[in-house]
Write a structure and sequence with these properties.
Elements lengths: L2 H21 L3 H24 L6 H33 L4 H28 L5 H5 L7 H22 L5 H21 L4 H33 L8 H20 L1 H12 L34
Helix pairs in contact: 1-2, 2-3, 2-7, 3-4, 3-8, 6-7, 6-10, 7-8, 8-9, 8-10
């Protein structure tokens, strides 16, 4: 079995083992399942760009449907954790955080019910069978993909600039994540590059979490403009933390660009691409008072 096939099989089986916990509504299971589906989709997407493998279409469809079913629950899990943290750290925003948490808790219950119904309808047990032994070796093509992805990351980071633009920061995070996943199953021994990419992705992910919560709070404000609780302090704090976190990302921009330069300058297939590598996991740690919510980057 090729390293890519091993990568796919491992994530497919991990997803299956998480189904009982997903049905129980466990927060950690939702996070881990979302990571597994994202990795599956990233790998399958790359395979489809390199050739016609129709036998993988059903697997990709299953992964996509599962990911879509998970996204709302995961966003609400993260929002509730973040609001709980903000309520402890910022007395001025505590009433607004408590109000929003109460409303979002109700929404999460409904989202979890929808997730369970969706899982009942999906044939996830077919995933390992669909992927088993059907993925070719693509070492040289993956090396080319890595160089292309590294160039895309450099462009996205440059476009993001040193000034915080929410959409540009989000676009940079997506490109960094794509490159990181590719390296994880193509050249997992490149630990230094993975470390730099993972940290940049985590910081931008913490920003994205706050952007998502901002949107949820704004929706609540629009739905209840005459609410007794003033939500403005909470929105202001979320925005301020995004800016602070982005400054921390900028401090790491040079390291990210160096990684991209190293990868784009490679002209040979790394020897480690011929060996099955274990996936790297990490927990996000952001210094200071802003507390990240991930146990590992997604």
């Amino acid at each position: 079995m090729s390293p890519l096939a091993t990568f796919l099989d491992r994530n497919a089986r991990e997803l299956l083992t998480l189904v009982p916990a997903l049905r129980d509504g466990r927060v950690d299971a939702v996070h881990d399942a979302r990571v597994a589906t994202r990795r599956l989709r990233a790998a399958l997407g790359i395979i489809e760009t390199l050739g016609d493998y129709p036998h993988l279409d059903e697997a990709r469809l299953l992964a996509r449907k599962t990911a879509r079913a998970l996204v709302r629950v995961r966003d609400l899990d993260v929002a509730l954790q973040l609001l709980d943290d903000l309520e402890r750290r910022a007395p001025s925003a505590a009433p607004a955080a408590a109000f929003c948490r109460r409303e979002l808790f109700r929404q999460r219950t409904a989202a979890r019910r929808r997730l369970v119904r969706k899982l009942d309808d999906l044939s996830l047990r077919r995933l390992p069978e669909l992927l088993n032994g059907r993925v070719p070796r693509l070492d040289r093509a993956l090396a080319d993909q890595a160089r292309n992805r590294a160039a895309a990351v450099a462009q996205a980071v440059d476009h993001a600039s040193g000034v915080y633009f929410p959409r540009r920061a989000h676009a940079a995070r997506i490109e960094i994540k794509k490159l990181r996943y590719l390296i994880e199953f193509h050249d997992p021994s490149d630990r230094e590059s993975l470390k730099v990419l993972r940290k940049g992705q985590e910081i931008l992910g913490d920003i994205q979490d706050r952007q998502v919560v901002q949107g949820m709070v704004q929706e609540l404000l629009d739905a209840s403009p005459a609410a007794d609780v003033d939500l403005a302090p909470l929105l202001a704090m979320l925005e301020a933390e995004c800016v602070v976190l982005y400054d921390r990302f900028i401090e790491r921009r040079g390291g990210l660009l160096d990684v991209c330069e190293r990868i784009t300058s490679r002209r040979t297939v790394p020897r480690s691409a011929l060996v099955t590598g274990a996936l790297l996991t990490a927990g996000a740690v952001v210094a200071g008072r802003i507390v990240p919510l991930r146990r590992r980057a997604m």
